[in-house]
Amino acid sequence: MSGAGPSLYPGESPKWAVFKFPPDAAPPAIPPPVADAPFTSFRNPFPIPAHIYNGVLEPIVPLTIATVYATSIALLNAYNRKHGNKPWRISKTRAFHVFVIFHNVFLAVYSAVTCWAMIRSLKHAVPHYSKPNAVVGTVDALCKIHGPRGLGDAVFYNPEAHQWQSKNAKIQLDPNGLPQSDDLGRVWNEGLAFWGWIFYLSKFYEVLDTVIIIMKGKRSSTLQTYHHAGAMLSMWSGIRYMSPPIWMFALVNSGIHAMMYTYYTVTALGFRVPQGIKRTLTTMQITQFIVGATFAAAHLFVSYTVPVSVAYQVADKVLPNVNASSIASAASSVTSTALPAATGAGLAFLKKWIYRAAGDEGLAENVFAPGAASSPQAHVGANQHAQHPIHHPIHHPTHTQMKTVYRTQYEHVPCIDTSGQAFAIYLNLIYLAPLTILFMRFFVKSYVRRSSPNTKHRSTQQAIAKSTRDAIHGVDREIESLGKSAEDGVDAFVNGRGRPASNGNAEKKTEGKQSVNGNAEKRNGNGNLSPENKRFVDSLNMKVSQELERMGEGDEGSRERARRLAREAVKGERGASRYEEDKDQSKILGRPNAE
Question: Does the keyword Lipid biosynthesis belong to this entry (predicted)?
Fold first, then answer.
């Protein structure tokens, strides 16, 4: 404990006590404060019973839903691929189209409201930049999310003492030893407790995005599946353990989702949206992963100091009956100035009266009238006493008394207090690490290639932008290859086929590929031509044979040349079809096709 003022200490190593697995169950998540009446407060529009609030935060809930979701999507992707990626019958109905529009509008509006709720909670929690110690105050507001507003006034859970505490002795807890529900000024009670919990539940509803894609006969990307399953676990851990950086996940993710579902709504209504907007949204998603991972990890390595009022016991020497002594001085002053002509007996009477009025009979008894027999001056000659009165000062004994004084000191506090808060952070890092590492790897490769001396580019900014797009596509391709392998493995396991076939052999099976116009080009397992191509070959053979006979060539020679020309023609037809298919797929993925 030291320092002349609040200080920030970035880069400090966290305590090993927070790296505990499984993390401590204490403290349980605190439900949002109950408003006086429903819909009276934007920070908590309606009450949520504690048993429901913590019931859905049991770890079995997100683990089960995420596992079932990922497995189901792998099986449905394999099912669609087997059936030529044909749209399901229900996807062609008007009711399905209306549902898709309603789903996207609902999520766009809800995400925008959640984003605003998080912005509002930060506005109420973070001090204005013009305030004293605004930097440390902002760090304190983002690290400690319970209690009233003010540097050092937060309420935090002490895992060593197994109780909630505050550095400010004036901050009171409720009768159950929990933070007061009416404490405002920190992000938990200002909206994170309510809107963060609802946002966690919305991650389960968002899986309908994938169901819609599957019903349209398309393949759900592995990146999308990974994102949805990981988001469930990330939001769960952040709210369950009340981890400080979870507000950013809710804020940024809801903001991007508001734009993303607006884009989906516009396209569902039949309007054409530039491809650049979709790429921008994808870039924002990847950027969110990188910034979010960095911000969350920083909480583990930050500490700071807060003002603490410390009580000290100080020894103080005091005189007994200080009031009586003061009154005695006043009495002497009064009798010597206000009553200069009073007789000696009158002065003595006045002093006695003043002492008795002060309640000090002891001092009053020591006042004697001049000439009295009991007076100390009675032993002195009358003439000598009259001319030179002798004053005997009264000595009062002193004693030591302990007095409490308060001094402000600055105490070191970590940003993260519990193993649960730390667990939520490194679970998010584990979720985001593969995406971040892949992105950085592809970005460096692409940027180095674009920045080589032999490469011409207009500016560094353009090179970075192109490298970013290439890195995003690289992440998508890498994850897609892993996802397809996983889907084949799940499909083979469920159907009991053992090890899945390789990509080369899989192409020879009766699965078919989607052509440019969306129809599957059917082939059998031996690679024979489809009926459409077979009719084309027969017609071509007939025309060639007729032309050769007209030219006078022999029967045998005509047939041989016809076969050769037919094979060349069919080969050219296949190549053109494959080229068009690849070109269309490149447009869908937003990648440049090789022409």
Answer: yes
Same domain, 292 and 207: yes
Round the CA-based radius of gyration of the chain to a whole number and report it: 43
Asked which of 153-157, 165-169, 378-382 is least confident by mean pLDDT, the reply is 378-382
Domain containing 116 equals 66-307
Provide the domain count of the chain.
3
Q: Are residues 290 and 328 in the same domain?
A: no
Angle at 287 between CA 282 and CA 291, to 5 degrees: 155
- Whole-angstrom distance, CA of residue 433 vs CA of residue 296: 12
Answer yes or no: do 392 and 528 share one domain. Answer: no
Cβ(114)–Cβ(235) under 8 Å? no
This prediction's pTM: 0.66
**Nearest Cα to Cα of residue 232 among 436, 60, 480:** 60
Contacts of 315 (CB under 8 A, 6+ apart): 400, 401, 402, 403
Asked if 297 and 325 sit in the same domain, the reply is no
Final residue belonging to a domain, choices 282, 307, 332: 307
For residue 505, what pLDDT is reported?
Answer: 44
Same domain, 291 and 347: no
Residues 185 and 129 grouped into a single domain: yes
Name which of 37-46, 68-77, 204-213, 549-558 the model is least confident about: 549-558
Neighbours of 436 (CB within 10 A): 19
* Backbone angles phi and psi of 250, in degrees to 5: -65, -40
pLDDT at 468: 67
Residue 501 has pLDDT above 60, yes or no: no
The type of residue at 259 is M
Q: Are residues 250 and 188 in the same domain?
A: yes
